[in-house]
Amino acid sequence: MRYDAGFREEATLRDGTVVVVRGVVPEDRELLRRGFDQLSRESRYRRFFANRLSLSDQELRYLTEVDGEDHYAIGATMIGADGVEEGVGIARFVRDREDAEVAEPAVAVVDRYQNKGLGTLLLEHLTAAAYERGIRRFHCDCLASNEPIKHVLRDLSTEVRFSERGEGVLEVTMPLPEPRVEAPEGPPSLRGNGLHRLLSKVAAQMVNVQLGRRLLAHLRGESQEG
Q: What is d(CA 119, CA 204) in angstroms, rounded to the nearest whole number?
């Protein structure tokens, strides 16, 4: 399996910034905390569907102590001017408990590194990692009022399905294509196909909102159990 606990690759963003893309480990809690602190209020709302001021220790544990199979996370880091590693982006999927071939993707990129191709890069790697683990469909959400997004999705595939989730949110289901590995380095290529355009749109506009709710639901359940 390519995307195991030791996965690590360098990548160059559109502006020439070099980042390291690697699997998330429990020791990344502080990196994630600092990265969250750098998100704008708008980015936090888009990612968590709530105005969050900080992440609790319980949330940080959930976000970094992943099992690598049903909950996989991949992050991008770089060395700052002070020589200290900093987290600049993260993407993850959580497998559906009722359907092992379905997972929920999510991505967050620190504001000053947005619009450089980092979100799309992370999602390409995430898609390949999901396919390795037998996941064949991603679910993501969009606002029911977001007509441009719905038109884009319908143009991409006749297999896209929409269902009402309430509160002005639509759930979108889209099949994953088998990644085409074109080089030993870099993510398997998705460029030119519908999913890549979808991921680019998701990364640019952060249309996914569901995982924030699922995270909170998971944390509430964990608190009740333990």
A: 7
Going through 69-160 in order, the beta strands assigned E by DSSP cover 71-79, 85-95, 102-109, 137-143
Phi and psi angles of residue 92, each rounded to the nearest 5 degrees, phi first:
-155, 160
In sequence order, the β-bridge partners of residue 170 are 142, 164
Question: Which tens digits make up the pLDDT trace of 214-225?
Answer: 544 554 454 444
Average pLDDT over residues 100-129: 86
Handedness of CA 186, 124, 100, 47 (dihedral sign): positive
Confidence of residue 67 (pLDDT cuts 50, 70, 90): very high
Dihedral angle sign, alpha carbons of residues 62, 19, 3, 209: positive
The strand pair at 137-143 and 102-109 is best described as: parallel
Measured between alpha carbons, how far is 116 from 208 in angstroms, rounded to an integer?
19
Under CATH, which number does the domain 8-225 receive? 3.40.630.30
